Amino acid sequence: MLIVPEREIPDLLTREASFAAVEKVFAAMDAGDACNFPVVREAIGHEDALYGFKGGFDRKGGVLGLKAGGFWPHNMERRQLINHQSTVFLFDPDTGKVSAMVGGNYLTALRTAAASSVSIRHLARKDAKVLGMIGAGHQATFQLRAALEQRDFERVVGWNYHPDMLPNLAKVCDEAGVPFQAVDLDGMTEADVIVSITSAFAPSLMADHVAPGTHIACMGTDTKGKQEVEAQLLARATVFTDEIAQSISIGEAQHAVAEGLIAEADVHQIGAVINGTHPGRTSNEEITLFDGTGVGLQDLAVSAAIVELAKAKGVAIEVDF
Amino acid sequence: MLIVPEREIPDLLTREASFAAVEKVFAAMDAGDACNFPVVREAIGHEDALYGFKGGFDRKGGVLGLKAGGFWPHNMERRQLINHQSTVFLFDPDTGKVSAMVGGNYLTALRTAAASSVSIRHLARKDAKVLGMIGAGHQATFQLRAALEQRDFERVVGWNYHPDMLPNLAKVCDEAGVPFQAVDLDGMTEADVIVSITSAFAPSLMADHVAPGTHIACMGTDTKGKQEVEAQLLARATVFTDEIAQSISIGEAQHAVAEGLIAEADVHQIGAVINGTHPGRTSNEEITLFDGTGVGLQDLAVSAAIVELAKAKGVAIEVDF
Fold first, then answer.
1. What is the ipTM of this complex?
2. Residue range A73-132, pLDDT digits in tens
3. Which of residues 38-97 of B touch A (CB under 8 A)?
4. pTM, rounded to two decimals
5. A256 vs A232: CA distance, rounded Å
6. How far is A20 from chain B (nearest CA, A)?
């Protein structure tokens, strides 16, 4: 079996490779060629940690396995370790034997950024000029970097609950040579694309903060109770997601569905747009919204790409297991 | 992190170490110090394989992780690989980082054998002389070897649906110096302890095949629909299990509960007997029945023991992950 340690991955994995892997597996999911398994997520009653497994099988890509790990909220303060810790294990689908182990921290950041970028590529207006960012934490910098590659953005407007974190966004914009401006939530009406990446349990972005023709990627809601945008916004938008079952239960759509504002049938898989079986955006006035809940198959697809890159570069550790 | 490959484990893991680890974790489960996570088990639609994860956390023992793998029914005929393939991954409960990877095939056989042995130690009559075996496959040899150590058995009687496999049992008995005799199911009335280890979907052992005072360990039923013994037998017996939730849903007790012959409250955790909070057997006429469904914590406990043994013997592979 092959092992790719966390430390090797930033030098191996590009945004392009992440994007390609995530786009392909979203397409495979919608075509019925790949499926996610039920998610296990447990509060273990130790270190306030949440631990669990996200597994799946991509029959077309021949990728089987799981990401295991979770959220250890005291890691940084107590041990100078990042709070999200995960590891991906791949298995040979022909035999059930473990085939690879891959550090899961950096790839999780890139696959999450890739998901919002896939949605921008397939759903945002081609002439989008202004990118709006809600959230300015560590993950927001990954989302921003990846989003900037999808359209010829001339400007970024950003808002965060704690404004002192906005320089994180300004720094990325500076590196990319795009002007950055801190705004009130009202200022989001200027944006053609909005990426929301917070861990909020109450909506920040209201329906009136969004202009016609905008594409919104909601990337922060992955748990019952979390919410980034007003439920009414989903009723105004055409709603897409990575996986419908997750979207309506633990994703941003959970609230609009619970309130009866939209039905399960109003939520479409982004894979259908990629595969051409759903038209996606049909006018310049339509609001599109992508509910990115995060699925195990994203992790597996990117991990399989990392293993190939590591083999090519000769940095995979081979263990006779 | 440390890696203990499958090939090292038969030389490291003893029946005694497996027994001690399983007995201890059953006790921890009943005391509320250890819990199993929901089981994921999926037919992946490739190679007719069943794949999934059994995870858990033993707070007292400090053991967190999962066993991943499953059943690849064509492995042997197509590739000369065993059909059950699994791997255990342990995590540091303080940080969420992966700490060890352990081959899971041999340990699964030993932990399953340890579970029936734990039940025999705590529930069988002290003067048990005749051991009955239902089933004569590969796993049955492990159950038999381990069971023989728990009482001064003078004789083994065995039955299998395919009698041509009974020499598997005879060989183990020969090595242990205990006479073996093939019998009809009626012959099980001679047994003081019966271990059933089949993958049957219809009962073999009927209530009338069991004499008063017998202890029965049902070790084969781990899936909805499987059944080894007549449901009426559970109504006659005092029923114990590794985990009540599994026992009544996917274990042997599923049928007796579904038929209303017993209630959930009639099923007791073996850990309570180990901990002394349940009296266990209270007479020489009582029939006791252990429903061994197999829990992730057994795998984790035995794997943690293997890692310690491998470190002591210097055979663990250290990888800078």
1. 0.94
2. 999 999 999 999 999 999 999 999 999 999 999 999 999 999 999 999 999 999 999 999
3. 38, 40, 42, 44-47, 49, 51-53, 55, 57, 59, 64-66, 68-72, 75, 79, 81, 85-87, 89, 91, 93-97
4. 0.94
5. 7
6. 24
